[in-house]
Amino acid sequence: MINTFCKKPLWECSKTLVAVAQGKVPADTVIANARLVNVCTAEVQDGMDVAIAEGRIAYVGKADHCIGEGTQVINAAGQCIAPGFLDGHIHVESSMMGAGEYARAVVPHGTTGIYWDPHEVCNVLGLKGVEAMAADARRTPLKAMITTPSCVPAVPGFEDTGAAIGPKDVARTMSWGNVVGLGEMMNFPGILAGDDHAHGEVAETLRAGKTVTGHYSLPETDRGLNAYVASGVRCCHESTRAEDALAKMRLGMYAQLRFGSAWQDLPALAAAVTETGIDTRFAMLVSDDTHPHTLVADGHLDHIVRTAVDLGIDAVTAIQMVTINCAQCFQMDHDLGSIAPGKCADIVFLDDLEHLRVTRVLIDGEVVAEEGRALFDLPPYEYPEWVTHSVRLGRAITPETFRMAAPAHAAAKGAARIRAIEVLAGKTSTRETLIDLPALDGLLQSDIEQDALKAFVFERHRETGTFGAGFVKGFGIKRGAMASTVAHDAHNLLVVGANDEDMALAANTLATCGGGMVVVADGKVLALVELPVAGLMDVLPAKDMSEKVHALERAWGQIGCTMPSPFMTMALIPLACLPELRLTNRGLVDCTTFEFTDLLAE
Amino acid sequence: MINTFCKKPLWECSKTLVAVAQGKVPADTVIANARLVNVCTAEVQDGMDVAIAEGRIAYVGKADHCIGEGTQVINAAGQCIAPGFLDGHIHVESSMMGAGEYARAVVPHGTTGIYWDPHEVCNVLGLKGVEAMAADARRTPLKAMITTPSCVPAVPGFEDTGAAIGPKDVARTMSWGNVVGLGEMMNFPGILAGDDHAHGEVAETLRAGKTVTGHYSLPETDRGLNAYVASGVRCCHESTRAEDALAKMRLGMYAQLRFGSAWQDLPALAAAVTETGIDTRFAMLVSDDTHPHTLVADGHLDHIVRTAVDLGIDAVTAIQMVTINCAQCFQMDHDLGSIAPGKCADIVFLDDLEHLRVTRVLIDGEVVAEEGRALFDLPPYEYPEWVTHSVRLGRAITPETFRMAAPAHAAAKGAARIRAIEVLAGKTSTRETLIDLPALDGLLQSDIEQDALKAFVFERHRETGTFGAGFVKGFGIKRGAMASTVAHDAHNLLVVGANDEDMALAANTLATCGGGMVVVADGKVLALVELPVAGLMDVLPAKDMSEKVHALERAWGQIGCTMPSPFMTMALIPLACLPELRLTNRGLVDCTTFEFTDLLAE
Questions:
Q1: Helix axes A542-558, A99-106, angle to 10 degrees
Q2: How far is CA A571 from the centre of its chain?
Q3: Where does residue A354 fall: left (phi above 0), alpha (psi -120 to 50 degrees), or beta otherwise?
Q4: How far is the C-alpha of B569 from the C-alpha of B476, rounded, in Å?
Q5: Do the bridges between strand B467-473 and strand B481-484 make them parallel or antiparallel, or are there none, so unpaired?
Q6: Which end of chain B is more exposed for a tag (fewer CB within 10 A), N or C?
């Protein structure tokens, strides 16, 4: 596939590289005396130099002959160099940062390229929003390669989003230079059922010679997985068991072993590699979703590689999983993923192969980060008004909005058996739980004793005024309320709380500031993370975002929730493509049968 | 890259595959109870079934649910199945057969796809000739993927050919569905020197997102090789030492380990893999040139895989080198090179992994060969008249044509010191040797005692009447003459002999029959291999061709030459891109300096 993510196409500068390699023209930059992590042969070569010109590698060997007057010489002093790390599946929006600040956060950790599925922003603002974020990314050296979101909305007919994507949109984007494939095809039921819409999107991608990325979250690895792979999907990051990942690789599918902030499957998956002795070319390491505090505290792909090594995966093998394997998955290995002549000079310096600490990063031959710090200038990005004012409620929200009348027979009985969504710490799935709720004054109420909280989802894109209502169990909060416009994947306004007044306050706080995440109690805002960019992100640096999110997490604690990153778990309450019971702006969805269901269980 | 070599593009049949995988629609064919050589993970999986529909693999596992009334079930009975073998670099013309008969010869040996550089026919007939041969290939199931010849003529300015290829031709062919890349860029001196023509051809290929194949025959693996790789060349079959192949792989270049009829580098190269423990994904096995008798007696890629295993390469690793590694080199691994859902159902049955005997071959889901026999019908191909009448001499050839007047001082002395081309059995290179020849009656003569034979090359494409003359040493023949229109790469009419009368007879025999190879002695034709297709090939089956070539080899023996396949060695006498001294229709070429040189060494 033609790669537009380089300083110059190879065919426009190959003569220069050829001259530099032979010492006829001096290199722009020479890296001297490095231990080369050779991902092509899986070797470590000592005492190697790399000569760079035109943003590409011209020569690998002993490069004294490439050094001229103007050549910048970087003495690696025996440190390791590896190809720039590539994240094969990632949603920038999960970082709560715009793409520019995201780049500034991850590049110092060795990430030089990402395969980004911007489906969060696309659900809110459509392809126009994707392009606005991509423009932010283009201000940075990070190669932000886009896969067109395939599932917008995630579950058509069950929720209202700000945009919808279909095969024609996919076809149109495939001609964009920055689009390298199709985003995760979460609609595996559609693929398996032969659905025209899902197959049409895949078809348009294959027809363009680009890569279809996947999402197959069933623990079924036989007929369903075979069918899904046969449709043309090339990779999948949804394995949770080693046998799932192994089955995928055996079927020629790239298994993207995930280790993000919330979904950390790698420890369970590593055995697919460490205990089998298989050829690992079909294994990748990806983050999927990484939150600002993880980026600040732990890092990005460097952290994932370190974790892989801790789990017993050989360091060079682990580095292959974030370099050449990923580049081969996307058929971009002619430009990316190895330190070899002709390739883009995207290079990571590592102190050694034990600590794997990133000390310097080059992209297209330029030093873009050193000792954990990005070297590129990045003024705050000015997103247009339609991006920063995306919360459009079709109604005023007051405490009365949250009153839930019990049906007559329940009111008479003074109680109702309802279906509650039970959330599980650190899991994407939910459970359906039946709860007997009191019906006082004819109204259903949150019941702290039973950890049953009211949950509302308000459509916030097109001012339809629609909302869905239900109950959630599992957060353990004793008072107050939380709201979020990060509410996958439609990102409507989600409110959960112990009383109607605080719920209204939480909702209105976000409606006023353009979206974000908030915790309130007793009529006061305890913590607010403003996310004015599409209601999902801010333009602040990672450190600031991390502090704000920490404050939010502390506020959750203040009102009784001890779950780690509870706002993440909350944000998945509306995600109707995952089991088991979900709430969207259209109502309660049974995600095992994909049908709307009643709140009342009687 | 979009692959046009399949029954249907995946996007036109993926719904069917998805249905078959789930047992909703019966498969066309099910292979049952096989040992699967899984090239994705480098494992062997026992008891596996494969379900096939629309020419593609729908399911891999236990496929009882895919069997319906109309399903053909092939019981593998525990035999191995591997992906169809791919030859990453090959010239069909060397087989002396048209592409149709070539396919019939190689498919039963497990070859399901070839990456074919048709530069022999292109030198004679241009791209029109390539298309004529491709049309012959299309009558067969073999996937004959074409790389546009890059070096026609091989050494511009030093020889006359029937056609010339430049960047514009390359650009034009890149839009052809059957062209997947650029043929071997033999002009590595041009690449290293920054030559516009060579770089232009590479650029047009890269711009089209296709693969540039290489030919770097220097034993230099530092600056020159780096420069060559940096230009965008992705693979090379010219390694003769293990360290060459290893150096290429380390630089991210696919090392194509060659084992053809005449050039058999694999034994010397295997150590690059067996003694290093490297990741072998950049290693391939290729044939380059295979003659009919090798195909009949030994086989094709099956024979090369067996040889690799004999040399200590693991069987599954060796099979990866003719399947997935090759498909990844050409970025066609989404369709070819593995037995996995969605891929073309190109499958080879092997008795076991020790003997590696091919027992059955499927291409696009059809059984196309069994027990060494092709099952597809192939009437003799009717090539048009311009293909079969390609020998166009601009002059009558008589014994007098071969008289070589000695210069005055040599005539006076009765002797002359001349530069002779010394050929070496089984080598592509020649040596320059000085010989003192008698000059009788003012004429230079072949000298049997010193094994010095006259050699003439007549232009035969455009009736220019030009010819070059020199002397050859090394064949050891005592009488008679040989002629050949297979005379790389310009394929002019080459005549070598002990006397002028037999040389004229040999030349005129070929001129009359449209080209071929002939041995004559004492005014009689001892053996003639007619090659009317471009003067390079016939339309006969491999067995017939093999017998004819055997007869030719015996005739060489009758006149004193004991070299194996001497006609091959002879055919390289004009190949001015290889060292050391060569003869073209324009004269003697010093191939170390790339200058014409004098016959007289004084």
A1: 100
A2: 14
A3: alpha
A4: 13
A5: unpaired
A6: C
A135 vs chain B: nearest CA distance in angstroms?
25
Q: How confident is the model over A77-88, as pLDDT tens digits?
A: 999 999 999 999
10 Å CB burial of residue B425 (0-12, 13-18, 19+) is middle
- Angle between the B242-250 and B223-230 helix axes, to the nearest 10 degrees? 50
Q: How far apart are CA B466 and CA B487, in angstroms?
A: 16
**Do residues A216 and A233 make contact, with C-beta atoms less than 8 angstroms apart?**
yes
Give the tokens for residue B585. 């229709």
If contacts are CB pairs under 8 Å, which of residues 42-61 in chain A contact chain B?
42-43, 45, 56-61
Structure-token pair, residue A418? 């309802």
B220 in contact with A at a CB cutoff of 8 Å?
no
If you ran DSSP here, which 8-state letter would residue B67 be given? -
The Cα A199–Cα B91 span in angstroms is 39
The per-residue DSSP string of A229-277 comes to HHTT--EE----SHHHHHHHHHTT-EEEEEB-SS-B-HHHHTHHHHTT-
How far lies A409's CA from each of A444, A602, B206, in Å?
A: 12, 10, 73
- The 8 Å CB, 24+ separation contacts for B381-384 are B381/B98, B381/B100, B381/B101, B381/B136, B381/B139, B381/B539, B383/B98, B383/B132, B383/B136, B383/B532, B383/B533, B383/B539, B384/B132
Q: pLDDT digit string (tens) for A581-598?
A: 999 999 999 998 889 999
CA distance B339 to A226: 12
Q: Which residues of A touch B333 (CB under 8 A)?
A: 328, 331
Cα B115 from chain centroid (whole Å): 10
Residue A426: is its pLDDT beyond 80?
A: no
Mean pLDDT of chain A: 96
Residues of chain B with Cβ-Cβ distance to A64 below 8 Å are none
Residue A261 burial by CB count (10 A; 0-12/13-18/19+): exposed, middle or buried? buried
Residue B88 to residue B327: CA distance in whole angstroms: 8
Question: Mean per-residue pLDDT for A402-408?
Answer: 92
Measured between alpha carbons, how far is A174 from A177 in angstroms, rounded to an integer?
A: 8
Contact between A180 and A90 under an 8 Å Cβ cutoff? The reply is no
- Which A-chain residues 65-94 have CB contacts (< 8 A) with chain B? 65
Residue A155 half-sphere exposure, CB side, CA atoms within 13 Å?
Answer: 27
pLDDT > 70 fraction of chain A, expressed in percent and rounded = 100
Name every chain B residue with its beta carbon within 8 A of the beta carbon of A347.
none
State residue B170 phi and psi, 5-degree precision: -60, -45
pLDDT for the residue numbered A577: 84
pLDDT digits (tens, 9 = 90+) for B183-241: 999 999 999 999 999 999 999 999 999 999 999 988 899 999 999 999 999 999 999 99
Q: Of A196, A194, A202, A198, give the one whose Cα is nearest residue A174.
A: A202
Residue A476 · residue A515 · CB < 8 Å: no
- pLDDT at residue B602 tops 80: no
Q: Is B116 on the interface with A (CB under 8 A)?
A: no
Q: What percent of chain A lies above the pLDDT cut of 90?
A: 91
Q: Helices A223-230 & A242-250, crossing angle to 10 degrees?
A: 50
Tokens of residue A44, six digits: 């470590």
Encoding tokens for residue B329?
């080199």
> What value of ipTM does the predicted structure carry?
0.95
- In sequence order, the 6+-apart residues with CB closer than 8 A to the CB of B510 are B391, B483, B484, B485, B493, B516, B517, B518, B535
Mark which residues 168-197 of A lie under 8 Å from B by CB.
191-192, 194
Task: Tell me which chain B residue has its CA closest to the CA of residue A324.
Answer: B252
